[in-house]
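Holo model, zinc ion. Inputs:
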Amino acid sequence: MKVTDRITKIVVGGNEPDPFKYGGVYPPNVFLVNGKNKSVYIDTAHGKPEEIQKHLSIWESQGEPEIAGIILTHRHSDHIGGAQELSKRMEAPVISTSVEKIAIEKESSAKVSITPTDGEKLDLGETTLEFVHTPGHTMGSLCIYLEEDKVLFTGDNILGLGTTVISPDEGNMTSYIKSLQKMLDYDIEKICPGHGPEIETPIEKIHELIEHRHQREAQMLELITSGKDSMDDIFNTIYKDIHPGLHNTARRQIQAHINKLIEEKRIEQTGNIYGIVQ
Ligand SMILES: [Zn+2]
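Output:
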């Protein structure tokens, strides 16, 4: 599916509802960006044979343009599968942040050979990509800004629908909110997320996501103040009605907020109990 003249969106497998995985109910999006001289892939999905086949057939149908890079937005397996295979077939380097390179190479067979710095650009011919480091969902998460189209590819930092998972073992809530604020520095007309539909009102969406996290934080501070001051208390109040399959994810979200508040010295932990720092 064409998103703009330069961008082809490739989704294989239709809906595979799995609300308990990163990314929610939508399968991962893969984007092929065509410049005048070169092209790039952004993410590669799970790496199932039918996905790889689809990517290759679209590339072949375009006359096998030179692929300047297979850019991986972050380490999760639903975004990086097949990267090594495509890299070999298309004679293209795999690109990620240096933080994510370590995790990607540990979790897959992909070998990352280019690790752009924050703000570095890649010229594809009348098509300019800027690499924007946006830690949060994972610590090496990367967004890519396509200047000419004013499009931001966000990986799992922003999803087409719903809120992303910030898990304290791989990500960080303080960094995530800073990364959202950083995105507002760009002139964005459209967001191409890692899952789900494109977002046509990007600035509103980014403000809404920042506001959602601030509200959650305010709610947790209120709970702690009122004596609902353990993980269980907070979980049972905020998430009392969610499906059991989501409980672990919900607890990790709470923990990510708790860690942020502790880092900021706004709360402190004594045993299992949190208290407001006076
Ligand atoms: Zn992810």
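Residues 212-276 form a domain with the Arc Repressor Mutant, subunit A fold (CATH 1.10.10.10). The mean pLDDT is 93.
Archived with the compound record.
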